[in-house]
């Protein structure tokens, strides 16, 4: 669907089976699981940093991070949080740095200023350098106001604890550190009087609700290997309940770490689609004429599909499939089947196997005579996943109509 041949978006609808970057979960056990279980579970599997240990050692030794040690984990983390807060003035960056703590610190020493995203990444990688297991998350209020924080797994109490380095605080109840899910429950249930903010030096603060309103929507970045794999796709795990209904993030676009990632942002603004909307399996991403973004199926070991329905039966001269690029290389399925919809029946058009260099090129399909109601690509389970990463997706579908 390109150029003058392209009908309006309203003439086509695109339906998929799943999204990699949008994963809505209702099971609290997934969110509350200890890191070793989250890393080993079949779905969704958490990807931990394993390939950048030298950079983390440099961070620890160069900036003498061991000096934050205190009598308890939470006291040590509070001291680390204060140190992170001291490294730069809060300001929307003029130039966004990569998610690399050492580089951010070097640039901050030259006068650059950052906001909560960079503070969260610095805190996370400092925790990794000191041996704590941590994860980044984005929190969103109902009005769209958002913020970046991290959670750290406390071995002493076997639970997650929120650390907010931008506001230099953490939360507790009866002296027990609280997680993001605890704060979500407190906000939804109206139990804010029991929540204490434990604050370090900071020139600004939250209002009467202690920032808990931001914990209505919780989006967990389900990987922390940002140093070793800065271009890998990001699975955003969104906790859902009655107060946080399922969301479709960025119209189902595949998300990757970028210096400007602040929550589930998308490039669609100024009257174009919102970055979040109620969840559905409908997306327009592979049909956009500008070719921005890509759709990728979830890596859950199941069969996947993408199908396009035309408003009315149409003659087709050619269909073109463009595969997504992930970490610099095209990502094509191991094998697939393409079908067309005629008279309400899906009929196989092509069975293929694209690997290696062939994946670099668009797949162009001359179409047989006929009037078609739809176009579909299927991928079996054994070809849709590669080492817990998505393997089946489409960057763009183009149709040349009669």
Account of the protein in words:
18% of the residues lie in helices and 30% in strands. Helix 3 packs across helix 6, helix 4 crosses helix 6 and helix 5 crosses helix 6 (116-129). Strand 6 and strand 7 (176-177) form a beta hairpin. Residues 1-10 and 263-273 have low confidence and may be disordered. It contains eight helices and 25 strands. The protein is elongated, with a radius of gyration of 23 Å. The strands form eight sheets. A six-stranded mixed sheet has the order 2-10-9-3-4-5, sandwiched between helices. The protein is of the alpha+beta class.
Q: What are its keywords?
A:
five-stranded antiparallel β-sheet, 18% helix, Jelly Rolls, 25 strands, 2 domains, single chain, C8orf32 fold, alpha+beta, disordered N terminus, six-stranded mixed β-sheet
